[in-house]
Amino acid sequence: MTLHSEEFYKGQSKMFVATDCIVFGFDQGDLKLLIFKRRVAPKLGEWSLIGSFVNEEEDVSHAAERVLKEITGLDNVFFEQSQTYGKADRDQGARCISVAQFALIRINEYDRELTEKHGAFWYKLEDLPELVLDHDQMVKDALDKLRRRAKHQPIGFELLPEKFTIPQLQSLYEAIFQKKLDPGNFRKKVLSFGVLEKLNEKDKSSSKRGAYYYRFNHENYKKLLESGYNFEIF
Fold first, then answer.
1. How far apart are the first and last CA of the chain?
2. DSSP 45
3. Can you name the CATH fold of 153-226?
4. Which residues contact 80 (CB under 8 A, 6 or more apart)?
5. How far apart are CA 4 and CA 165, in angstroms?
6. Domain locations in the chain as residue ranges
7. What is the pTM of this model?
């Protein structure tokens, strides 16, 4: 017996679908997370990731883009699906599945006034307060995925300014992996990839000699990625 679609779906239980964004930023040697105080019960006023229900006419990815735009004012933010969370009791408000996305933004480019309007704040990872629901687990899982990706692909460039020094790049990777790296070995490794362009200007903020600025060559990276090149940092 063949059922029509309306008969098949009739009587099935319904549930909400949400997307929660784990927004990472890099600021003066620290990896930070953007969080805000929850505005609805349950858990009203407690710290939360930034998210939203997915509207009926939206793709999940479009909902994430909308959330990131509303909070940061930025378009074309790098984000990637992390994991789906669907425990029956994960949200005391209603039966809700959440598709978590981790996003990387340049912390000096977002709209500060807009972010403050939404009551969102940056916290160092080591200083994070306890988050609502299963959001602490979302952060842990997203950080694990970020580390796996950053170890084999230069994903960290999404967190840096357009021009940066090798020491700044090393500082970013040390923040992501929470470990010190040998400067000589790191420099030799990242320059061997052929995806950095040396600029004719220096950052002299930390020394008279200064350090040359570099920028990321997206075209070279794309060609190497298509060839199957392994960008293993260490």
1. 59
2. T
3. Arc Repressor Mutant, subunit A (1.10.10)
4. 101, 102, 103, 145, 149
5. 62
6. 15-151, 153-226
7. 0.88
For residue 180, which of 189, 170, 169, 188 has the smallest C-alpha distance? 170
On whether the 15-151 domain is CATH 3.30.70.20, my answer is: no
Are 99 and 81 in contact by the 8 Å Cβ rule? The answer is yes
pLDDT of the chain along its 234 residues, tens only? 566 667 777 778 889 999 999 999 999 889 999 999 988 888 889 999 999 999 999 999 999 999 999 999 998 899 999 999 999 999 988 999 999 999 999 888 888 999 988 889 999 999 999 999 999 999 999 999 999 988 887 777 788 888 999 999 999 999 999 999 999 999 999 999 999 999 999 887 777 778 999 999 989 888 888 888 878 877
